Every structure is written in C-alpha cells, then in structure tokens.
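Example pasted here:
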Amino acid sequence: MISDTVAVGVLTFIGTGLATAAGLWQWQRAQAREARANFRTQRVEALREVWEALSDLEETQRLSFTRRDRSAAAEASRLTQVNLLLLRRSPFLRPDEQEWAQAFAQHVTEIDTLIRAQGRDGQPDEPDSEWFATSRA
C-alpha cells in the first residue's frame, strides 16, 4: 500500500495548496473592497464637482441680470465647462444623474434665452431686479 511518508507528503501538499488558495481569495477580496472604497470616494467627489458647477452656472445667470450684463458669453462658457465636467466625470455618475445634470443646465440656458429675448422683443431693457429674490432685505 502507500507508505506513511508519502501520505504525509500528499496531505501536506494538499493543505499547503488549500491555505494558499484561501490566502489568495482573501487578498482578492481585500483588493476588491479597496477598489470599491476608492470608487465611492471618487463618485462623491464627482457629485460634489457637478453640484458646484451647476450652482455656479445658475448663480452666474442670475447675477448677470442684476448687473444688467446682457452678454451671453459668460453663460455659454459656463455651460461648456459643465458639459466637459459631465463628460470627464461620467464614469462615476449614474446615467440618470448625468441626464438630470444636463437637463438642469439646459433649463437654466433656456430660461436665460427667454429672459434675454424678452428684452429684445420690445420689453423694457431693464430686468426686474426682484425676480430671483427669495427674501426681503
């Protein structure tokens, strides 16, 4: 039959193989956990950047009317920056979040266009400085 030393050698080999496989499996799990944590961190950073960019776009649009600045160049460049940011950060944003951000930017641009067109269509050239106020001074 099989000698004791051969049986011990085979069992040792199998045990070593199992211990190595278990260690490799744990290492892969740790690497995957670290990658998920890194992705979550970058996702939060991407959401923060998109939020700030959209807020800046909306704020710039509102301030352009209070300062009676009728050029649309600043808003166009901000919109371009927002779109480039959405493209750059798209791997970390869900599709619905990208759609919402693009829709918000588009609506801000449409509102800006409508208000500017109102001034060109014979409406008073002076904007209503209270249209955006949420509280009285």
About this structure: Residues 103 and 109 are 10 Å apart (CA to CA). Helices lie at 4-66, 73-88, 95-120. The mean pLDDT is 84.
